Amino acid sequence: MAKRTVKDLDVKGKKVIVRVDFNVPITDGVITDDNRIQGALPTINYLVDNGAKVILMSHLGKVNHKDAEKLQADMASKSLLPVANALQKLVDAKVHFVASTRGKELEDSINELAEGEILIVENTRFEVGETKNDSKLSEYWASLGDLFVNDAFGTAHRAHASNVGIGSILPSALGFLVEKEVEMLSKAVYNAEKPVVAIIGGAKVSDKILVIENLLKTADKILIGGGMAYTFFKAQGLEIGNSLLEEDRLDVAKDILEKGKGKIVLPVDHVIANDFANPTDVKTVDVDQTPKGYMGLDIGPKTLELFRKELDGAKTVIWNGPMGVFEKEQFAKGTIGICEIIADLPGAMSVIGGGDSASAAINNGFADDFSHISTGGGASLEFMEGKELPGIAIVQDK
Ligand code: AMP
Fold first, then answer.
1. Ligand 1 pocket, 321 CB below 6 A?
2. Could you tell me which of 170, 184, 261, 392 has the fewest CB atoms within 10 Å of its CB?
3. What pLDDT is recorded for position 175?
4. What is the CATH number of domain 185-384?
């Protein structure tokens, strides 16, 4: 059943707690990428325009509660104050910030909020009970508002107090960002127009086994690249040199190759190097020509051609994980090549499941060439595995 969205709520004059994902990268107090703040603006602006008193809650980074000194340092460096300052420049409404997660100052600030104003609460992870979904903390936070909106997709796969805890107490709805994530990912994973081609890469097979198994149910082809391809090659008896190998996943790889016969497509050539940190000899060879002492770090041009043919005519493309060590320019051609191929596909719905492949596409100028780029790495991975995400499940149905 469809979930309620923010448009289903009567928000005028109400204190609306919105869980947003303001977990932005900050260096020396400066936000280096404000995509996540931008992503929350449609919901924030809608609430402001409709006279809500908007209370924003988010985590920022990880906070160490086990070591008193580290906790002090985290509380000093992981404040949401820079985010509040950045948000103030992006909205027409007044943005208040309160440097606490409980107590009189927070409660007074909320009570003083006028309709159409925004308050940012300090980093939710400053509370030790946040990641434990502590019931007392959830009840306290819920007592501060009338309604709850979940607009944080990046944490939707976690059951924390600021999403599942509050959402299980207050009347709830999805924000626009999460609504779009659910709509697009559901379309790609559950109601996809065929042919469906999935591209799965990244470092480890172990991280993607459940995704591959789930997508084998619906995808017509699964193209595999990146470091994880080498465990499959090894399972086929190929020499892989010093390439990434998960020895304990060889049986799983064999099993997937068997189950996915006719669907799984592996690289045919690759870019190899004699060393990872300091490669002095880099060359492209077929995958059955890998010399001992070398490691595979990107897919090669013949593979890109093969993948182009497999993608030709696809109506749905799902991509998760880079094709090589794309952080280094000399091993980024495979990942950028996949962006180019997908950008050239007429009429295909294309979805990137967050994480590294999403940043590769965005940083190389392909953001507008995809139908959807997910904002949640772990959350979209779990969605693609077919799991129910607790932060979404908790939101009331229409
Ligand atoms: P993941 O988080 O599983 O999507 O993995 C992303 C990481 O995989 C990136 O940091 C890539 O550098 C790395 N990666 C991709 N291909 C390879 C490869 N052939 N060898 C080693 N690491 C790789």
1. yes
2. 261
3. 98
4. 3.40.50.1260
